[in-house]
Design a protein that fits this description.
three-stranded antiparallel β-sheet, 8 helices, 3 strands
């Protein structure tokens, strides 16, 4: 019995000292909201890198990529979320999220709601107006490197 305990202790020691069981082996890469949104724009909505970068620049200015960012506009209405949804669109966001099992203050909820407004699949106006703008190549040099 004593030798079995020593064997188990020795195996545990070997496993714990093994390079395979370092803290990095258990680390999970957490994507920033910026990365999640960029992936959504380029993979889900199939926008090119230039357009996605323009949208990211706009969203950074609007909300800093925070799904709970809010402000009161000049009409005394709340603007909310990564796109600063306002008025009827804010109400639509809340209704959509409620009906589809999302929290309206979550990144997932806002991105799913944005998918409905994709002009490619639904031919509606995309609330992210920059998606409709063609950015000339010379302007890409002025795009902040963090968005390329």
């Amino acid at each position: 019995m004593k030798s079995k305990k020593k064997w188990i202790a020795a195996m545990c020691s070997i496993l714990l000292s093994s390079s395979m069981l370092t803290p990095a082996a258990f680390a999970v890469k957490v994507q920033s909201n910026e990365e999640i949104i960029y992936t959504f724009l380029t993979e889900e909505l199939q926008l090119n890198a230039a357009v996605a970068s323009g949208i990211l620049a706009n969203l950074y200015q609007e909300s800093g990529f925070e799904p709970t960012a809010s402000c009161i506009d000049s009409n005394h209405q709340i603007s909310y979320g990564i796109c600063q949804w306002n008025g009827a669109r804010y109400a639509d966001l809340q209704a959509f999220c409620s009906e589809n099992g999302y929290a309206y203050d979550s990144l997932d909820g806002e991105m799913s709601f944005s998918r409905l407004m994709n002009p490619i699949s639904h031919r509606k106006n995309l609330p992210l107006t920059l998606a409709l703008i063609s950015i000339p190549p010379c302007k890409l040099e002025m795009t902040p490197k963090r968005f390329l």
